[in-house]
């Protein structure tokens, strides 16, 4: 890899884009606030619209690649030695970052994630805040949480929350009176995050374990909110949105019945966005239920959300419905 070239406030956005598009890394050696302004100016000049979902993702990947060429140096003490640079040490440390050249986009993501981690995300169904860690999907949208908060629930002594993330759904189940909740996640960062959240909330009945899908044993209720879109995940946060080959969805549905106690129920929380953008059909989803030996007992839908028209996927998102499927073996 070629060494980066050092740049400063005299670098024009169009020149920065041309160099970055050619694979030239740009190491910023000037005022930190000016670097943020340059990054914003570059972003405005890069195309963000596309006629379909596939080209939209492609344009987003190219946009991320180009913007990621603007670098800052994080020193051995995890400081950024630039005029007007914020103290990034705690944010970098919390994200598991290391000294070296870091894309400004990544550093800003660390700072933003750390702010969420410190302040927390208010969750109405809990009457409390959830504190997401870097790389763990934050429960900023409440529709899927509200479905778990209002779905019929009685006689459940033990529940599994598969792919718990921040632990928000496990916490909702515990607050609803489930005496034992086992929450799993395959990502160590998510396990650490969920454990911290249930500890903050004072929920000793929730146990968080690292596992690929199911823990040992059976439960009266098995819940999963898998990534909603089939497709390749290209970052830690992508993994909360994209499910390569529908692996998690298929694995959950295939194994759910074997982990249910007698008379138990499966809750699958899923958006129909994949259907709206042509990545999956409703008949394919229902066929997956049937192949897993599961029948639909009921479906609860969350109200649609409104989306600004500037978003390339605004039309699909304006029609999106998030559902909680109640499934029985």
TrEMBL record:
It comes from the Bacteria. Transmembrane segments: none annotated. Pfam families: MTS (PF05175). Residues 129-271 form the Methyltransferase small domain. This is Methyltransferase small domain-containing protein. It comes from Amycolatopsis deserti.
């Amino acid at each position: 890899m070629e060494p980066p070239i050092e740049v400063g406030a005299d670098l024009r956005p169009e020149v920065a884009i041309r160099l970055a598009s050619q694979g030239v890394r740009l190491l910023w050696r000037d005022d930190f606030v000016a670097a943020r302004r340059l990054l914003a100016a570059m972003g405005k000049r890069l195309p963000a619209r596309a006629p379909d979902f596939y080209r939209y993702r492609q344009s987003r990947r190219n946009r991320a690649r180009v913007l990621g060429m603007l670098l800052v140096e994080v020193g051995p003490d995890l400081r950024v030695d630039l005029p007007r640079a914020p103290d990034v040490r705690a944010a970098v440390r919390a994200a598991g970052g290391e000294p070296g050249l870091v894309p400004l986009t990544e550093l800003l993501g660390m700072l933003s994630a750390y702010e969420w981690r410190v302040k927390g995300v208010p969750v109405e169904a809990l009457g409390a805040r959830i504190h997401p860690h870097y790389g763990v999907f934050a429960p900023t949208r409440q529709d899927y949480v509200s479905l778990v908060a209002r779905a019929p629930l009685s006689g459940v002594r033990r529940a599994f929350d598969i792919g718990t993330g921040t632990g928000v759904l496990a916490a909702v189940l515990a607050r609803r009176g489930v005496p034992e909740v086992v929450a799993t996640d395959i990502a160590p960062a998510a396990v650490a995050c969920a454990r911290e959240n249930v500890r903050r909330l004072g929920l000793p009945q929730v146990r968080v374990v690292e596992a690929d899908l199911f823990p040992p044993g059976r439960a009266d209720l098995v819940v999963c909110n898998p990534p909603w879109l089939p497709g390749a995940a290209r970052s830690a946060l992508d993994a909360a949105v994209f499910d390569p080959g529908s692996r998690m969805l298929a694995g959950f549905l295939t194994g759910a019945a074997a982990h249910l106690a007698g008379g138990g129920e499966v809750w699958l929380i899923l958006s129909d966005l994949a259907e709206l953008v042509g990545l999956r059909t409703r008949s394919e989803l229902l066929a997956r239920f049937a192949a897993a030996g599961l029948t639909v007992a009921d479906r609860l839908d969350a109200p649609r959300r409104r989306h600004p028209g500037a978003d390339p996927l605004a039309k699909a998102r304006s029609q999106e419905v998030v559902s909680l499927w109640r499934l029985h073996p």
